[in-house]
Specification:
With about 400 residues, the chain is mostly helical. Helix content is about 70%, strand content about 0%. Strands 1-2 form a two-stranded antiparallel sheet. A hairpin with a 4-residue loop joins strand 1 and strand 2. The longest helix is centred in the N-terminal third of the chain and has 25 residues.
């Protein structure tokens, strides 16, 4: 089995992404006057924030990369079904965590136009002061976790078919299938625009198909087109596994530039909208993929001495290593801080500046929590139990090791 070293530069990128996720989630979803914004033609600042809030796309690329790299290392060492089976198990665990997030612990969805938040159990209970339960309509919400889960299952199936029985040496075939598949899904993802009304109709009729639609079509991370993000991450992983870093520069960087230009050029032709399945959304996802692919490649290729960099700013790696735990608990911390904020500074959430300050405070509070948590090696975090559980199934992980 080929030894695969952990890529700390990508851990650093994931930590940066999570910091932005916390900052913008806790800022935007606490703005009391968000219903006063004209979402049919929002200000450029709001459009910019809507781009910055969706860092989950980068996490999806990262997930496709790391899991494919692990699978290639195990299959390349002669193991067949075992590693693939563990990824399928992980995918179903992510689905369970997804429902825990949308119903109990996670951030809330918002009808921005009417300013009607659809709260999770934790958020509703803290705000009302009494035990509250979420609306069953939240079963139809999507999250980055649901997309990562389905990607884990689908992309693992694809990679298992490609890499098993010596298929790992067929480099050109493997790269071509993953890259062409990613291109086709991205280009044809405009089909979601026509399929989305069927999903809404299924929700209205309480049709069982609506649950399936929540994985494939629902905001903010529908499998169409975000399956492509994982396929591009998977292609990058095989290039790294085969020591083809020059191929990353020659293929994936131009691909990122192509999607960036395609998305930017197309988006400029349509009215700016937020979270609406239209052609502005279609081109926005192309633009985001371009940005994230370029970031991913830069961190993968340029930061060749990640340990020196992480030693200077270890807090970013703390965020990265406990990314899932923080993602699940960010709403709990945000709601408690918001409650305290209203007691001390009534009306702090009436302006966007106050909410942005609140987002920065949330990031700082989490940095403080992680500073003390690391002293006991992040024991009892979700990642701690994840590593312990999968180690018993034969999958060792360095996720919590070598923390600065």
């Amino acid at each position: 089995m080929k030894t695969i070293e952990r890529n700390h530069s990508l851990d650093l990128l994931r930590g940066i992404a999570l910091i932005f996720i916390i900052f913008f989630h806790t800022s935007v979803y606490n703005f009391a006057n968000i219903n006063k914004i004209d979402f049919s033609n929002p200000p450029i600042l709001i459009v910019l924030i809507s781009f910055l809030i969706l860092w989950g796309g980068l996490i999806i690329i990262y997930s496709g990369f790391t899991n494919t790299l692990m699978l290639a290392g195990r299959l390349g060492g002669g193991k067949e079904f075992g590693p693939f089976g563990l990824l399928i198990i992980a995918g179903f665990i992510y689905i369970a965590v997804h429902y825990l997030l949308i119903l109990v612990l996670g951030r809330w969805s918002v009808d921005f136009v009417n300013n009607q938040p659809n709260l999770t159990a934790v958020a509703a209970t803290i705000r009302s002061g009494s035990i509250s339960f979420p609306s069953l309509s939240k079963l139809y919400d999507g999250t980055s976790l649901s997309t990562i889960a389905i990607n884990l299952i689908f992309v693992s199936l694809i990679n298992f078919a490609l890499l098993r029985k010596g298929g790992i040496v067929k480099e050109a075939r493997n790269y071509s299938i993953l890259l062409i598949g990613g291109f086709l899904i991205m280009i044809l993802s405009f089909l979601r625009i026509d399929l989305y009304p069927l999903f809404q109709d299924a929700i209205t009729k309480e049709n069982g198909w609506a649950v399936g639609g929540s994985f494939f079509l629902a905001n903010p991370y529908p499998l169409i087109p975000y399956l492509a993000y994982s396929l591009f991450g998977s292609a990058a992983a095989l290039m790294v596994y085969n020591n083809r870093r020059k191929l990353i520069a020659r293929v994936l960087i131009p691909t990122g530039i192509l999607f960036l230009l395609y998305g930017l050029t197309g988006a400029m032709r349509y009215d700016k909208t937020i979270s609406t399945p239209d052609f502005f959304w279609y081109f926005k996802t192309q633009f985001e993929l371009g940005i994230f692919l370029l970031l991913f490649c830069v961190f993968l290729l340029a930061f060749r001495k990640p340990n020196r960099l992480s030693a200077k700013i270890p807090v970013i790696l703390w965020f990265s290593r406990l990314s899932l735990t923080i993602y699940l608990l960010e709403t709990l911390v945000s709601e408690l801080l918001g409650k305290a904020g209203h007691l001390l500074f009534s009306g702090w959430n009436q302006t966007i500046n106050g909410c942005l300050l609140f987002g920065a405070i949330n990031v700082a509070i989490w940095a403080g929590i992680l500073f003390f948590w690391r002293k006991i090696d992040f024991r009892y975090s979700l990642e701690y139990f994840w590593v312990k559980g999968f180690s018993k199934l034969g999958k060792e992980s360095g996720k919590l090791n070598e923390l600065p």
